[in-house]
Input
Amino acid sequence: MPLLLCDLDNTLVDRAAAFRGWAEEFATRTGGGDDAVRWLIDTDRDGMAPLDEVFSAIRERFGLEGSVQDLVDGYLDVGVPRRVTSGPGVIDVLARLKSDSWKVGVVTNGRLSAQTLKMEVSGLMPLLDGWAISEEVGVSKPDPAIFRVAAERCGAPDLATAWMVGDDPASDIGGAHALGMRTVWMSRGRIWDEPAFRPDFTVATFPEAVELALAGEP
Output
């Protein structure tokens, strides 16, 4: 049974837009303006910066009260996880995969509660056969173990015939490439600059990635 594994943030859900929306609201509350929004986005590093580091910097810059952990917990409760939406066309093409008997799973780094909430509020959950979240699994991408867990939970453990779609060169494409999976990189307007390996395909949108997988089904 064919398997498609997917990254979550900025692959299936528009995490960048959700963070910008949160940053704009935060800047309005604190009187920071556009400069604060840009600073928040830079500090977040497209979701790659650890949350405790991000909110330690936010606490210092904006003179916030409360502990860093309290700020992180508040953000996870009302911030990006509750704001995400699925990317354009994502729900429709996932439904098409399911109708064609594909197994679909998510492989994502992050906190269990936050990543699960993103899948729920974006409407993805009913279309997924399984998922592996780093906090729960105990390892993060690009560790091969997290990909194997996701595949097993989807009921399709043979990664040699599986596909992986993601936007992070090292975590998504590098991790899957090392396992012999076929890889599709969502470039998001960037140029590939990793010399050690390359994706099998580069696309701009998730529906394009699905079309490639359907066309190349073993």
Residues 15-83 form one domain.
